[in-house]
Amino acid sequence: MLSVAGLGKRYPGAARPLFSELRFTVGAGEIVALVGESGVGKSTLLNCVAGLEPADAGTILIGPDAVDMARLDEAAAAALRASRIGFVFQAFHVLPTLDVAQNIAVPLLLNGIDAAEHPRHIEELLARVGLAGFGPRWPASLSGGELQRVAIARALVHRPSLILADEPTGNLDPRTADEVLSLLLERVRACHAGALIVTHSRHVAQACDRILALDPEGLR
Ligand SMILES: Nc1ncnc2c1ncn2[C@@H]1O[C@H](COP(=O)(O)OP(=O)(O)O)[C@@H](O)[C@H]1O
Ligand SMILES: [Mg+2]
User: Fold this and answer.
1) Which of 44, 45, 56 to mutate to test the pocket of ligand 1 (most atoms within 8 A of CB)?
2) Which of 13, 15, 78, 105 is paired with 147 by a 20 to 30 Å CA distance?
3) Cα 174 to Cα 137: distance, rounded to the nearest angstrom
4) What are the backbone angles phi and psi of residue 184, rounded to the nearest 5°?
5) What residue ranges define each of the domains in the chain, with the CATH number in brackets?
6) What is the pLDDT of residues 144-171, one digit of tens each?
């Protein structure tokens, strides 16, 4: 679902590259943890994979047909991202002016899925993340754990090949973090998507299938 080779990135003006010649894969249904010290470049790596940040070198093959994100222009990258990738962010990024169902509908809208089909997809997903009946609720009335469940439903609703999660449980108390993580792993496995999860938590990393550690020398 993801095959990266020769990946390099240096921010303009930086004294040295953040990383170079990175190589790794994430298989279908495989959940990989990405760990490393703060500032080492984990979020940048995720953003390069998502085509949100341009890489300086390398190939980033995404999905069963191995489309190279690194070779696409901005519009094509946006389309590939919308159809193949689901995101879960630390700060949830649930839009406060849309209700829960409308938030989850965003990837369906981006993929041009008929609005008549939305309620079926959304209700099924809400039930699967333990939020049946939450569709008309406003995000402001939800707890942190509930908001992250909404974000997980939104990341999965369009059946992406690849889930990218940047410290998805970093804003939650330990018990809620465990519940949300279990749910994320269960849902990713059920969808046969691949997942790359940035985490500072040893516990989260150990719950994944494999751990990649990023340091200034590269990936281990
Ligand atoms: N848009 C940017 N422009 C310039 N430097 C950046 C940018 N984003 C991140 N950096 C720098 O790159 C380094 C890695 O950042 P980041 O990828 O956020 O690390 P991590 O997620 O591992 O904490 C940091 O030194 C950060 O200041
Ligand atoms: Mg980060």
Assistant:
1) 44
2) 78
3) 25
4) -60, -45
5) 2-219 (3.40.50.300)
6) 999 999 999 999 999 999 999 999 988 8
